Q: What sequence folds into this?
């Protein structure tokens, strides 16, 4: 793992980040004293994808769901002219 000073890190940040993503972490130092280590994040822990069906078995949708309230909707919007 290599060490870069703050000025070099600011100047070459894009290149250094790309190297870290490709498995080459680095350390940023100030006046020769190490301050931080930069490593790539593990994608599986940084952003969890949304899961379809995660409530399967938890919610029950009535069989007449698509007709629920149809009489009231018809009364309000059916529009007898």
A:
């Amino acid at each position: 793992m290599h060490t870069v000073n703050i000025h070099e890190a600011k100047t070459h940040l894009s290149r250094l980040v790309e190297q870290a993503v490709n498995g080459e972490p680095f350390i940023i130092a100030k006046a020769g004293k190490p301050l931080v280590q930069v490593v790539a994040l593990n994608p599986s822990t940084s952003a969890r994808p949304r899961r379809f069906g995660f409530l399967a078995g938890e919610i029950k949708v009535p069989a007449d769901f698509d007709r629920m309230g149809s009489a009231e909707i018809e009364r309000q919007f059916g529009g007898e002219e």
Observations:
- Residues 49-77 form one domain.
- The beta strands are 2-5, 26-30, 33-38.
- The mean pLDDT is 87.
- The first helix runs from residue 6 to 11.
